[in-house]
Amino acid sequence: MAFQTKKFAEIREDITQEIRNKTGLTISNDSDAGIRADGAASVVEGLYHQQDYIQKQLFVATADEPFLYLHAERLKTPRFGGSKAAGSVTATSNIDLKIVAGSKLTDGKSHYWITVYDEYLKANRPKTIDITASQVGSSWNFDGSSLLWVSPAAGLSGQTTVVEINGGSDEEEVEAWRERMQEKEKLGTERDREADLERIVKDVAGVADVFIYPKRRGLGSLDVAITVAGNPPNSPSSALLSAVQDALDAYAGFWADVRAYAAIKEYLNLKISYSGTASATEVEQTVKDYVGALIPAESYIDSTMVSRIKSLAVTDVTITPNTNVAPTNTNLVTGWLRIGTLEVTKL
């Protein structure tokens, strides 16, 4: 049973009772002894609160954010400060020209990306250009099809085609950071367990989820698929994959053939018609939440989708296709179901 500290009134009563026992005085609230008892009781209650506060900060599970940095130093688990999204776009020009490093692209919604290197374009020959976000954050992960140049040079097409832009993450949430430290404390000494491997990969900034597949490429192999932090989670960039591979090699490279890889996105194209008072936006968000939460190699279950939609103010729903969908899952490919096209119609 936890130690019960006394409240102010109980502490004051104990003090006044002691005075009565020793002096026989009747102590009123406005008497000298009563006023002194109030002061002493306040000090004692404050000391109790201080001890409770100190006890709270001693443990990772209850410590306030400033004291988590002290635990992080002890456990060697620094807080992730976020990462910049990176990727590539395809640019075209009708003349030979140079795009200097640092040239800006935008989505027209106050998000900017910059080119990483000087790029030389030949007339009418598309070229893939590496870019990185101008700021840290998951908002710079881009799932659209095109970006626009800011002040494009003469001859340069103002619109680029996005190949892929991801890998951006926000500063780590306090509770997610706390959970990583608790996991490290719980595991203790590294003993080559699957949980140890998962923790080591999650210590790489930007990683959201880790999926471990022993013997995927044969005996002695150990493959680790990762997703990038975001809502919903996304595929990792080549830079993040490289960072995870370095962490795996440092930890397990001497005893296992380890490899970090990205699951291959496979898209679900859904048409949904329904009747009821729920809005199309509510239904669309429900579908996106369900599919967005699917992990690599996990199947889409039609009945689950139907039940989630019907949990809204929906009387009837029809989904096309109306079958379960399993992603590719072989020794070469791990499929990951994502939303492709989504049409929601209210009858």
TrEMBL record:
<dbReference type="Pfam" id="PF26078">
    <property type="entry name" value="Baseplate_J_M"/>
</dbReference>
<protein>
    <recommendedName>
        <fullName>Baseplate J-like central domain-containing protein</fullName>
    </recommendedName>
</protein>
<feature type="domain" description="Baseplate J-like central">
    <location>
        <begin position="195"/>
        <end position="256"/>
    </location>
</feature>
<dbReference type="InterPro" id="IPR052399">
    <property type="entry name" value="Phage_Baseplate_Assmbl_Protein"/>
</dbReference>
<dbReference type="InterPro" id="IPR058531">
    <property type="entry name" value="Baseplate_J_M"/>
</dbReference>
